Amino acid sequence: MSNHNTGLNTIEIQPKDTAKQRLNGIMAASENYHNILQSEKEKKGLFIVKTASRWIEQAKTRPIPKMLFGEFWHEGELCILFADTNLGKSILAVQQGDSISTGEAIPGFKLETKKQVVLYFDFELSDKQFENRYSEKFENHYQWNENFIRVEIDPDAEIPEHKTFENFLNESLECSIKETGAKVLLIDNITYLKNETEKAKDALPLMKHLKALKNKYGLSILALAHTPKRDLSKPITRNDLSGSKMLINFCDSSFAIGESSTDKNLRYLKQIKARSTEIIYDSDNVCVCQISKSSNFLKFDFLNFGTEQEHLKQYSENEKSEIENHVKDLLQAEPTITAYAIAKKLCKDESKFNSFKVKITRIVNRISNNSNT
């Protein structure tokens, strides 16, 4: 065996190597060295600067993103699922985690990946509450795949003196990713990672941190978030996501769960943002589901497709006029009365008070604006 120094690298050549093989080795080493130099040239401080053609060539070497939950969520995406309280965000997230951990698609939604490890960070339920959802009165428990790993906060954990809770939480989150080798994260919910997400100065660092983790470990992240109380007669938009618009601006995809006014057990899923696909499930084509519990597993059952309008609260013109007249009368009788107090007086169904309050607030604001013009 002899050594040939190319000036680029030292290549070991076996006695049986042909001249062509030696030449191929030299050329491969030369190309590799050229690529390293080219990559270094493309780094400009914070930026990487390449021609569009080189970006495409690089992209060709990466796998095509596969669906994790139909067109709603793809591999490699930071996706935000948002909805009002008690509409089933956690139920759907756990169902997705179970699906990915077993490699079995949720009926009605495509799954293109093989089964893999899923980390579910549960900042909402206690272990007993979780048990209740996935058993029959705490018996006949659902059998989970070992790939599904649930994580909750250790109440006895001591935070190091030199660290804040948020810093320690983020470090622990990253440690869990490295130790388990998981590529899929479910975070329930995002507000636990940052107490204040309603301001850009707080939401932006959070999204940057999640995207950095995603890129560093090649993750797919589904983060759950709340919506403020909304008017159920209005379609869901990106403006309904509670907090700063930084959340929706920096995520790769987002979808929402809407409440059906026709049946308290019905929900609809609507795409809000997508990058790996076109928007398929918009206002004219939502996925209608029903929350059910077959024996020991609480889940969403896909029913059909429909329009969002079918599930929105409908007010007749007479009802609208009647409510507005009542509001005007109360404001005239008591000019300092609040929208909340008006809603309390006029709401006929306490279970729908929150959405009714939003409607009354809009009417009060409209009347106030009209009187000032």
| Cα distance spanning the termini | 94 Å
Number of helices: 10
Radius of gyration: 27 Å
Strand order of the largest sheet: 9-8-10-11-7-12-13-14-15
| Poorly predicted segments | 4-8
- The H-and-E topology, N to C, reads as EEHEEHEEEHEHEHEHEHEEEEHHH
Largest sheet entry: 9 strands, mixed
Q: Pairing-aware structural class of the strands and helices? A: alpha/beta
Secondary structure tally: strands: 15
Overall CATH class of the largest domain: Alpha Beta
Q: Shape, please?
A: globular
| Annotated CATH architecture of the largest domain | 3-Layer(aba) Sandwich
Percent helix range? 25-40%
Mean pLDDT: 85
Residues in β-strands, percent: 15-25%
CATH superfamily of the largest domain: P-loop containing nucleotide triphosphate hydrolases
| Total tally of structural domains | 3
Features:
373 residues; 10 helices; alpha/beta; 3 domains; 37% helix; two-stranded antiparallel sheet; Rossmann fold
